[in-house]
Write a structure and sequence with these properties.
- This protein has a single domain, classed as Maltoporin, Chain A (Beta Barrel).
- Helices cover 6% and strands 57% of the residues.
- The protein contains seven helices and 40 strands.
- The strands form six sheets. It has a 22-stranded antiparallel beta barrel. A five-stranded mixed β-sheet has the order 4-9-10-7-8. Strands 1-37-36 form a three-stranded antiparallel β-sheet, with no helix packed on it.
- 44% of the residues are buried.
Length: 759
Amino acid sequence: MNGTTTLASQKVKDPSSQTIFRTAALALLFSAAPVAIGVQAQAQSQAQSQDGVTWLDTIAVVGTRTETSVQDNPASVSVVDEEQIERKSGESIAELLRDVPGVEVVDSSAPGMKRLSIRGESSRRVTILVDGQEITDHSTYGTPILVDPANVERIEVVRGPASVLHGAKAIGGVINIVTKRGAGKPIQAELGGSYYSGTDGWQGWAAVSGTVGNLDYRLSGSLDDHGDRRVPEGRYSATGRLDGTSFNNDNLSAHLGYTFGEANNHYIALKAEQHRLSTESWTDPDYLDATVTHFNIDLPKRDLRKVGLYYDGTDISDVVRKVHVDAYYQTVDRLFMNEVTTRVPPTPPMIPLGGNIAVRSTSDDRNVNYGGTAQLDLQFHPDHYTIVGLHYLADELATTKLSERRSNIVIAPSQDARTVDDASIHTVSAFAQNEWSFADDFKLTTGVRYYHTQISHDRSLSGRAQPPGGVVPVNPVATSPDSSEGRLVTSAGLTYTGIENTTLRALYSEGYITPTLLQLYTDTTAGSGTTTLGNPFLKSETSRNVEIGARYNAGDLVLDAAAFYTTAKNYITRTPCTAQLGCSAADVRAGNHINVNADAATTYGLELAAEYTVPGTAFTPYATGTWMRRKLELTETFGRWATYDTNTPSLSGRFGVRWEGEVANHDAWADLYVRAATGVDRTTWVARRAPLVSGFETESLPGWATLNFAFGGSFGGEDDDRFRYAVSFNNILDKEYRSSFEEIPGVGRSVEVSLRMKF
């Protein structure tokens, strides 16, 4: 990054009241204009249909585990429905959520493994659900979203802690991806494809679905292939290409459902899916030390397979309104490879001639998850609607890591080392929620959940190769003792609908996340070859959130605003090894790191969105924006230190104008918009080997804005939607930029084209 400075010490940089006022005023102006929300507004095919339905009327389940409209939900909820998905030819699910307030796309240097951050929280602190079932991943970066966009019915987003209803890891929020079922006729074939000039990439997919009697089904598959990313020539690339940014994947899914019962009020379904991904990883050359002569990261395999079983019953009795039971089994197989060659300069008398050290690190992991949920919806009284449930999740990880070091330096001989670790987390939790309409226009929603978590380190083995060949058989290493903990989390939300077209809301919610098995037990080697040690004594991370909001829905004018304040503690971070932290003398000398609970965070901000359909026209100006400040505190390792330089833009959002109408007797739409974010600073602790001095380093990234234009439509068939097309012109001015949450620079001027057909 540009503007890098190294600091021996750093005090917290609290923005002045004048700066806060000016930034808040800008945010308010940004949202108070006659404008519309980017993703939320587009989640409906039109901002306002003839019957006055808008995006605030969309039904969501994820906010309360009951079917509640966005308008009346006490949580900050957004819904992206099938219409919006078909208008965006996104290469991943993550791209479809880029414009939701408070949501940022994270690539972690791997273009095919995009993740999501919510309200500044890392993607590791966001729960990802597919049909209500959790996808886990023990990567340091969080869970990538690999679901085929063509197989998605809608996406529900909760911003803010939601561990009461949706399980551990929901400190930042929850993403629930709902996949498609069968079509409304006996057989329907679907075919589609997209082209992406920014990667010379393409996506093709096909599906067949239908309903025959009480049986519904869907079979679908897709293929993706993307080359290296095109970017403007400049700081990041002299050729306009980024080497190491290609990826490809394929997806298969199947759904089979059956409706039964005298009133057809029972439904059972079986879903199976497979996702395979191969991707490279790009590293900014400026991040590499001058002594590094070769650096490469490759992720040739990430294979996910899942089978899920679901049952839903409605109107079982006057008291039992709904019953839901689900169970699933999932495996994730991953292969990670890192190669780095370092040039060691001559340092007489120890290394009189210099030399090279080449390290190749390979990690082959298998993550197995299985579990299920049982939920009852009860109504004992007209003013109360209660849900109770049980949830079980087993999370098992087996890792095999191989480190191969080749050296022509006598004091650093060539050697191979292998480690094997098996560990597991088993979580049982019980939850309850009650919706109480205690007065006219008032509803109080309270929830509680108790977690019992058992963590086990089942096996640890190590071995070392000896030249000229052969590997010493692995030997057992002392494992850490098993541990368990219990945790109670709560939530409370209040809504008031006594003002015409308006809902006022307030919410308190808590988040909870246990350390990953990698953070607890596994030593990870990457980059320069230093190792980050697992720490079995890590504490769980927790967060608390308070927010207030208002929604206004008058048909042609729609507004949504929320203010939030979140505190989190016991954040897990990596820090240089010391004897005080329990590291061995060898780890200290090698410059290795260890995972510790050192960080705490305070985040506050505004999420504002609005749209206005100009009377008598087909034009709808819109905007969505987030103003956010985030303070990070390091409370143990470095003494008391804090900073607002946390890589979080003060302002980010999208604004534009949308048109909807008819062209040549078919439905059409067009959208001219700008995406933008302010510049950021990020201050982090950088540990360096002697004689270099360790200290705090601040990196700066400039603000950016891109101009974009999209259009599309549908035609053919009775419903005028047999054929759908969409064309997007992205970054029209070919601006060089990088989002603060992404490591890979943004695509330059490019075109995306997609076509969908139904038969």
